[in-house]
Amino acid sequence: DSISVQLLENQDTVSGNLPKQKHGFRLGGDSGAAQVTRRYILAAFFHSTSQVSPWIDSLNFLSPDLHECNWHKNYTRSNFPFGDFDPVGVFCEDKVDGNILLDDYQYPVEFMQVNIRIVNDMNGPLPPEIGYLMDCRSLMLENHLR
Question: pLDDT for 78-132, tens place per residue?
């Protein structure tokens, strides 16, 4: 998988850390193996569920300059049962209230959600790797019957 190879090639050989983000917020890269593992599993999920045709919206999946907890887009919909704000994709929380941008050393990922409740033309099986996404507490998929 090219994203995993890219991450491993850019890993600091002394600390094992991934490089800081090139632009925007400082979103992570300090977790080493934990982050590489999460990104690999999420990349397997993305590729496995787009076998027949690509997703309609990539939701920032596989963005090399974003922490995997920012592989989402924020939607606002008045019919959403839990409030108007609905982040779609991968988002995370830690001990601080609310969704935040993460640095895995200062704020370890403790609660990851994968929420894809939009029509996004997902197809193909869920990969077995998804079971190893230890930080994931919620996997919500809707509107993907094929």
Answer: 655 556 677 889 988 755 444 444 445 555 566 788 888 788 888 889 999 998 8
- Domain segments of the chain as ranges: 2-141
Q: CA-to-CA distance for 121 and 15, rounded, in angstroms?
A: 40
Strand partners, 114: 90, 139
User: No. of H helices and E strands in the chain?
Assistant: 2, 4
Report the distance separating Cα 121 and Cα 10, nearest Å.
32
Q: What is the model's pLDDT at position 10?
A: 55
Cβ atoms 51, 124 nearer than 8 A: yes
Q: Kindly state the helix (H) or strand (E) to which residue 73 belongs, with its residue range.
A: strand 72-76
What are the tokens at 131? 């079971």
Max Cα-Cα span within the chain: 50
Q: Which burial class, exposed, middle or buried, applies to 89 when counting CB atoms under 10 A from its CB (0-12, 13-18, 19+)?
A: buried
Name the CA dihedral angle for 122, 2, 133, 61, rounded to a multiple of 10 degrees. Answer: -50
Query: Which residues, including other chains, have CB under 8 Å from residue 82's CB and lie 6 or more apart?
Result: none
